[in-house]
Amino acid sequence: MPKRSDIKKVLVIGSGPIVIGQAAEFDYAGTQACRALKEEGLEVVLINSNPATIMTDKAMADKIYIEPLVPEVVKKIIRLEKPDSILPTLGGQTGLNLAMELAEEGFLEEQGVKLLGANPETIQKAEDRQAFKDTMLAIGEPCIPSKVVEEIDDALAFAQEIGYPVIVRPAFTLGGTGGGIAYDPEQLREIGSNGLRLSPITQVLIEKCIAGWKEIEYEVVRDRKGNVITVCNMENIDPVGIHTGDSVVVAPSQTLTDKEYQMLRSAALNIITELKIEGGCNVQFALYPNSFEYAVIEVNPRVSRSSALASKATGYPIAKVAAKIAIGYCLDEIPNAVTGKTCACFEPALDYCVVKFPRWPFDKFVYADKELGTQMKATGEVMAIGQSFELAMMKAAISIELGMETLTLPELAAKTEEEVIQLLHHADDHRIFVVYEALKRHVSWDVIFEITKIDKWFLAKFQKLADMELRLAGGDDSEQTYVQAKKMGFLDKTIRRLTGKEIKKPMLAGYSMVDTCAAEFTAETPYFYSNFGGDNEAAEYIAHRDSGKKKVVVFGSGPIRIGQGIEFDYCCVHCAWALKEKGMEAVIANNNPETVSTDFDTGDRLYFDPLNPEYVKALIETEKPWGVVVQFGGQTAIKLTKFLKDMDVRILGTSADAIDEAEDRERFDELLERCRIPRPVGETVFTTQQALEAAERIGYPVLLRPSYVLGGQNMIIAHGEKDVREYMAIITAHELENPVLIDKYMMGIEAEVDAICDGEDYLIPGIMEHIERAGIHSGDSISVYPAQNLSKRIQDTIVDYTARLAKELKIVGLMNIQYVIYNDEVYIIEVNPRSSRTVPYISKVTGVPMVDLATRCMLGERLRDMGYGTGLYPVGDYICVKVPVFSFQKLRDVDTQLGPEMKSTGEVLGVAKTLPEAIYKGLVAAGYKMKREGGVLLTVRDADKHDIVPIADKFASMGFTLYATGGTALRLNKNMISTNAVRKMHEPHPNIEDLIESGKVDYVISISQKGRDPHRDSVKIRRKVVERSIPCITAIDTARVLADCLSLGEQVEDIEVVDMTKI
Amino acid sequence: MEQKRKAWLVLADGTVLEGESFGAQGTSIGEIVFTTGMTGYQEVLTDPSYYGQIVTQTYPLIGNYGINLDDMESSASHVRGYVVREWCDQPSNFRVAMDIDQFLKQQNVVAICGIDTRHLTKKIREYGVMNGAVTTEYDRLDQAKLQEQIRAFSITGAVQAVTCQSAREEKSEKGLYRVVLMDFGYKRNIVRSLNSRGCDVTIVPASTTAQEILSMHPDGVMLSNGPGDPEENVGPIGEIKKLFDHGVPMFGICLGHQLTALATGARTTKLKYGHRGANQPVRDLARDRTYITSQNHGYAVEGETVDPAIGQVSHVNANDNTVEGVRYLRKPCFTVQFHPEASAGPRDTSYLFDEFIAMMEKEAE
């Protein structure tokens, strides 16, 4: 059946900011969908609040709205744009929930808008727990004994009936937010109540716990004729009990016989058929390891993180195919882009093994509860491909960038065997490494299996890796062992270290193609992964299709983590497109399956491999590129600079030396000296003693951070000696390759610029000003473009300093500079000789295609010839406010207090004609409900008590009831602002805890001197607030802006939407 | 560590690939084919249609779940040799009875691992199926002579080699229908599929005559899959023609499909490298649907040779448009090239067994 003729204009809903459980995969899916729809000549209207995405780019849709993803706004856009259809299945849970809400209230029908991909009944059947169970029952698919409850007492009664442990799953929440396993009534009371609160429909599922069963997933696609296929199945190495997003996953399944594989495959097809989904769907099963008994765990009637993974694992573009199906095409009419000959109605055959490894934020949140369970905690993931499981696993371990070369975690070496076995009981981020350690010590498989329920097949494989590591460490340097070790993924560097000997005949990786068909047909996919001892299909491919064009390799940014998010993927993708446009061949190297950059048709070729020197070397040897680009892939790519320079590879843009100059503290100081630019005084130290002395000299408060950082990793403000000691103890626990920097901390206004430079001229698209004063990481600050409170003189100084640095460093491409304005003087905080987090949004709001221009600069073009001028770009008509978004609810024990270390996972943008309006939009988009009545709880440190008075006054005058702890309450009452004093946490009940539980509080402003440690009362309070979904403000400037914004009385209905393509 | 024994894969074009031995020792010559299924190696090893062939698995990790006693598609392995990248010496599954190495030794199948199966697959894809040998004695034997034997090899008498010696009945629980299965090398799941639908199945040797079959008064005749060149089966083709003319309901799978076509005047042809795997898309023209099927065949019916007065092509392969099924017009007979009984592979076309039942029902009326 061809395209439906009744579809002309489609609204695509994106997934909003990056949060844990909803990351870059939806930008990938949305981008693929938009392109697929435009390819069909349809008019595409897009809404997404996330400005860092590729899908919100001008070229992606005809109309683009970077607006809050709330029903009122979507309705407004529908009324305005009058689309005939809406595609809700590619924007994650957010997009689906929104569309459902509009469908249920009859709005879509009233406006004559069709829901594509799935109908409301389908979504209802898949998402509503009881409806889902009934549906499964009707088609004979087994479910886990469970019951939907809306009251905690019902939950307790049912748990009594089926027996503990039970799993709590809240309905309609992201990534299982608010769920958990309860082992007794007390735990159920806590987890259950929390789940009920978080569920938008106050509903949770209480389910029998089947922890330990195998967890198997199928990615299924169906069209309107009823054709059904499975694209891929996947097996979680971690059995049921750990969220699939936090599991190490392998594709295809490894331990299933054909009977088991087909049984579950048929079940998945039955389910998608019954639900009548037209598009992609993810089905998760639990399979009892000792029989054919299975149960359906979950169905996602939309594309998901798993479908992005399945797409990259197989080469099958699920989102694109799903979009084509949604507008009427059938699977057998859609060509297979990979082979160019066959159709999309087939099932990929893999001739390799894929391993996905999660990336958790615990290196940043050292105090977070690291236990893994039903609530996802990973911010991102990597994928690795190998012709053996061992190779794929080792590549994955290298790709997560935790400094690992094998599965050996150095800190476990000091543990006794008993301690290691004890650690196996903790399913945390180190679980696999602990298993590996146990295997190295020859703990029996039975013991490990009994505790972890990890299938013995995987244990056997890990054992092979462990044995090889031990063998190498025993000094075996025979050629046979070397070849075996290479095929298992040991790096030359590791082999040299373990054997203590040089390698006689080093092996360099060749490449195999991902072709969806296990070489059955000739394929056209320029998608490669490395192998050892096989053909080099990439070299053959290049030789065959010599275009005569110059080849440029763009290095990507690896897994999404706090501080290195989707924005770098945006930059890499744009760089690749710009290179193609300029007649180059763009080659992308990356390992993140969630991204647009790892779509095989983004560049001319894709290498899906670890971004470490040895793999990069093999890539360079095969590609022999004319040049490489490192400045768009965040720190991951920048880190490769020295290695590439030593290999004599042409690094396009800013030189390796200039990068070093900006990052090496001493050289940087000299540079600033030369440029006569002031910076806060600072020193470089290696030991705790040096740190204490330096801090004394500089004077507290001081800012401590390791050099070579991104996202303010491990950065703190120390107010005294104790803080310095605590910090140095944590930081020196890891290998201290680079020194620690200590700077004078200046609490001034922060400003930030990104500049494009061609070595001589520079273009600054805009100056951004942060709402929060210095001390809060720029990524966590609300940022305003254009700057509102900087005098002409200050702005001129910023431009002047930027120009001086650009010239002196001979920057070619992008750079990002952060300034602090303290006592009306401009100081420089840091220079990043690369793209930054703000590039995508500034590009969109100013209309300056920054990456495109930067790439052209790298190729030798001059800014003055590009038509955007030089110097500071004129300010436009709109004000844009970037608001950070956090994932605190999912990370237990993490202090929500903002500081110099970045904590946000994503961002949203508010775009409007006036500042208050833009702020209002930004806050709404970030999830603030903007309630104008109720209670405000204030508890602030002494330093802020003065500033809190006018803010509290503002809340009081709006009619809010104020509550505050002792000191704060006293201060407010003294200032004639009537405030209810609340007892602190350790004081008798009723105290602050009871107040928070009572539901009387709608905003909390909590700013404490210290934080981090989850045992501190202030941290406990903030955790409680977050878990109750009450907005919690931790900076005085944020509080002020919020109060101002609320007092203006803006309504969501009044929001004026802005088409970004018209800016 | 155990000293690994060498093994070699010798191809008709002179290529010699060195690997490691597993399974049986010795030298075995056959036709090299590849299969792309990611699971189901046990079913592949016991599928009689692989008679005379050296099977290459494109999926690199083979033997992960060992060998169990339930998933045999016949009582023995008929492959001539087995080629994998890596076999698993530590299988894991609740039904494991032995590892794949033990099974291959037991079945006397010479196997080789450590082969770049992707490279080999590309070779077969480019040159077409090729003869070859798996040997553990290449360093000891007369290499020129081996090459000669490889070139001279052809699969003959395949059906006779795998068909049963005498008739045997497999009863179903309900006993609703009586089906005679002509055994050209049948896969057990055909019988299981019929049994589960209430058919008592009498399995008869390939040499059984139409008259003998009809004397059993079957409600229907099932023509099984099997190995080799279909045209070789002159006897069975003649008997199938008689059964066809008689009008007893017939359902043919794979070789059974090809033999029916030959019996009704159409021709078959050898494909360059065949279809072997669990992911072949097949279009059911009447239903306007595409199904994912399990396949294992090197020959195909030539569509244009099917007399439109006798039958019409009902299914085509969505990848290369080869004939995947024929529906006969005046007689109650339909045949498919793929394997609706799955094992290994998807079960999406098992509805064809239901159609066979419906056809028998209708004819009985």
Tell me about this structure.
- The complex is a heterodimer of chains A (1063) and B (365).
- Chain A has 1063 residues and is α/β, with parallel strands linked by helices.
- Chain A has seven domains: 9-116, 3-Layer(aba) Sandwich (Rossmann fold), CATH 3.40.50; 125-141 and 213-348, D-amino Acid Aminotransferase, Chain A, domain 1, CATH 3.30.470.20; 145-209, 2-Layer Sandwich (Dna Ligase, domain 1), CATH 3.30.1490; 356-370 and 385-499, Carbamoyl-phosphate synthetase, large subunit oligomerisation domain (Carbamoyl Phosphate Synthetase, Chain A, domain 4, Orthogonal Bundle), CATH 1.10.1030.10; 522-652, Rossmann fold (3-Layer(aba) Sandwich); 682-739, ATP-grasp fold, A domain (Dna Ligase, domain 1), CATH 3.30.1490; 930-1048, Rossmann fold.
- Chain A contains 36 helices and 40 strands.
- In chain A, the strands form seven sheets. In chain A, strands 27, 28, 29, 30, 31, 32, 33, 34 and 35 form a nine-stranded mixed β-sheet that branches. Chain A has a seven-stranded antiparallel β-sheet with strand order 14-13-10-11-12-15-16, with helices on both faces.
- In chain A, helix 1 (25-39) packs across helix 11 (318-326), helix 5 (120-127) packs across helix 6 (129-138) and helix 20 packs across helix 30.
- The radius of gyration of chain A is 28 Å and the shape is globular.
- The mean pLDDT of chain A is 93.
- By secondary structure, chain B is α/β, with parallel strands linked by helices.
- Chain B folds into two domains: 6-155, Carbamoyl-phosphate synthase small subunit, N-terminal domain (Glucose Oxidase, domain 1, 3-Layer(bba) Sandwich), CATH 3.50.30; 159-364, Class I glutamine amidotransferase (GATase) domain (Rossmann fold, 3-Layer(aba) Sandwich), CATH 3.40.50.880.
- In chain B, 24% of the residues lie in helices and 32% in strands.
- Chain B has ten helices and 19 strands.
- Chain B has helices spanning 41-45, 100-106, 117-127, 143-152, 158-162, 188-195, 210-214, 234-246, 255-263, 351-364; strands at 6-11, 16-23, 27-35, 53-57, 61-62, 81-83, 86-87, 110-113, 130-135, 168-170, 177-183, 199-205, 220-223, 250-253, 268-284, 289-301, 311-317, 323-328, 333-336.
- A ten-stranded mixed β-sheet of chain B has the order 10-12-11-13-14-19-18-17-15-16, sandwiched between helices.
- In chain B, a hairpin with a 4-residue loop joins strand 15 and strand 16 (289-301).
- The longest helix of chain B has 14 residues, at 351-364.
- Chain B is globular and about 65 Å long.
- Chain B starts with 5 loop residues before the first strand and ends with a helix.
- The model of chain B has no long low-confidence stretch (mean pLDDT 96).
- At the A-B interface, strand 11, helix 9 and helix 16 of A face helix 3, strand 15 and strand 16 of B.
